[in-house]
Amino acid sequence: MFRRKLTALDYHNPAGFNCRDETEFRNFIVWLEDQKIRHYKIEDRGNLRNIHSDDWPKSFEKYMKDVNCPFKIQERQETVDWLLGLAVRLEYGDNADKYKDSTPDGAKNTDNAAKNAEPLINLDVNNPDFKAGVMALANLLQIQRHDDYLVMLKVKRLTQEAIAKASQSKEGLPVALEKHILGFDTGDAVLNEAAQILRLLHIEELRELQTKINEAIVAVQAIIADPKTDHRLGKVGR
């Protein structure tokens, strides 16, 4: 949990540090104050250095207040993490000139940086998992299969019907979702918004259906309202 920060501070045992071990914890606090934080003057660190004293917890609690630590003495992991963060900030402040021009290990090599920027550059197209994924995607998009998987990835499936529909689409008016009450809460803001959008789309579909129904009713009424009577057949109609 603390390994990265301990390593950055050159702690002697970053991988094996155990904050639950009382003796190790107290020694760690003394090391942190003496070597990194240095909030107290040297002559004022006596109580904190006396790790075998029964009053050490009180001295440590006072130390936490003096450095403005927001956690309680019982919250040991949170306290250690906060103190480590403080030490890292102070360490950087003391050595700003040393670190300001430093380059992350992953960016020292230009080729590595380029590879990190393009995560698909090392993609193995012959990997069975990759092929299976392409086939699954093709089935989902209803793309015609091809022996070359890369060709399938380049396919853009646009039917004439889809193109015609897209060309006829009209730009709609913006909708303020917050003005439309969902009626229930999923507990997730993103899901709530998606549900609102789906509801509005459903309402729009129902309106289109109602419009078509109304048009059909009008057409039927037009026929019924103007009957033609054939007296010879004794029927009413066309």
Automatic annotation (TrEMBL):
Belongs to the RTRAF family. It comes from Nycticryphes semicollaris. The gene is Rtraf. It comes from the Eukaryota. Pfam families: RLL. This is RNA transcription, translation and transport factor protein.
